[in-house]
Amino acid sequence: MTTQPTSQPLAARPEAGADVAGPQVPRTAAPRKRRPVGDRPSNLLTIFMLICVAYFLLPLVWLVIASTKSNADLFSTFGFAFAHFNLVENLRDVFTAQGGVYLSWLRNSIVYAVVSAFGAAILASMAGYAFAKLQFPGRVLLFSVILGAIMIPTTALAIPTYLLFAKAGFVDTPWAVIVPSLVSPFGVYLMRVYAEGAVDDSLLEAARVDGAGEGRIFLQVVLRLLAPGFVTVLLFQLVATWNNYFLPLIMLNSAGLYPLTVGLAQWQSTSAAGSGAQALFSTVITGSLVSIIPLVVAFLILQRYWQSGLTAGGVKQ
After folding, report:
1. Closest Cα to residue 303, out of 232, 242, 224?
2. How many helices (H) and strands (E) does the chain have?
3. What's the mean pLDDT in 74-80?
4. 88-310: which CATH number, 1.10.10.10, 1.10.3720.10, 3.40.50.300, 3.40.50.620?
5. How far apart, in whole angstroms, are the C-alpha atoms of residue 15 and residue 21?
6. pLDDT at 310 over 60
7. What distance in Å separates the CA atoms of residue 249 and residue 258, rounded to the nearest whole number?
């Protein structure tokens, strides 16, 4: 007996021409793409950077404008508004006041800053190279001590330094300002980090195989590779020594040895004390403007070496 296959119910049979793909799913509209409104974090960062630029530039703008005013205009006009142009007379007063002592202060600042900056950069380069590439006992401990010295504020060491220099007879001499400025713990740390990436070990081994001593290797090979880092430390120490006020204040007694920071502060104190010396206010402001010109010139001269160091590792050889 043969069984006939059960036929599919008519209701379940698909009609001719019907879609047999399956049950229909309701389609949902694709989400619309919103128009780019702008990157909010980027906009906030731009606003923050503009605030920082204004924070640093507004005092400089005020200094330039105030240097063109007479002493009377300083107190009778708005700070950022020009008045009678008196810059030439102010410059003449700066360089002729008290027998032209400003020129002596300017010379002292240049000597202190240049000698200290070059000395600190050389010592930091030597120490950084030694910590990065040479093996010697106590290397890790000494570097840890240097890192700890970065955390100590320089003002906390001013009195002990004065007592030591008084015993050595260096007080009221240029060495009282230059010698402490030769030590730069941050410069040593920076040069150690830079030397680890800039100086290739194979280059040092090749120089040693050729019979070069460590001194010759450092002067003729390593120092050239460390030139961008050297310039960076030099600029940092140049600005730090140029703007140093507390150390020369306690170390120096003779007005002829003062740097610009201490000398201008003395003029400011004299002006604030009264006794008919209020005319020195415009002289102090103009002298402050002149005092920043050497730093600007130094940065413009050395910035190409600094920028080359920042971009030295940006391109893969």
Report:
1. 232
2. 15, 0
3. 84
4. 1.10.3720.10
5. 13
6. no
7. 8
Q: Are 232 and 310 in contact (CB under 8 A)?
A: no
C-alpha closest to that of 131 among 145, 143, 148 = 143
With a CB cutoff of 8 Å and minimum separation 6, the contacts of 127 are 146, 188, 191, 192
Q: What is the pLDDT of residue 111?
A: 95
Number of other residues whose CB lies within 10 A of the CB of residue 244 = 21
Per residue in 36-52, pLDDT tens?
555 567 788 899 999 99
Could you write out the three-class secondary structure of 157-195?
A: HHHHHHHHHHHHCCCCCCHHHHHHHCCCHHHHHHHHHHH
Let me know the angle formed at the C-alpha of 251 by 245 and 254, rounded to the nearest 5 degrees.
Answer: 95
Confidence of residue 301 (pLDDT cuts 50, 70, 90): confident
Q: Measuring CA to CA, which residue among 282, 281, 271, 238 is closest to residue 119?
A: 238
Q: Which run of H or E residues covers position 228? A: helix 227-242
Mean pLDDT for all residues in the chain: 83
d(CA 310, CA 317): 16
In the chain, domain spans: 88-310
Task: Indicate the pTM of the whole model.
Answer: 0.78
CA dist 69 and 255 (Å) reads 27
What element of type H or E holds 87?
A: helix 87-96
Cα 87 from Cα 36, distance rounded (Å): 51
Task: List the structure tokens of 223.
Answer: 């120092």
Structure tokens at 128: 């950084």
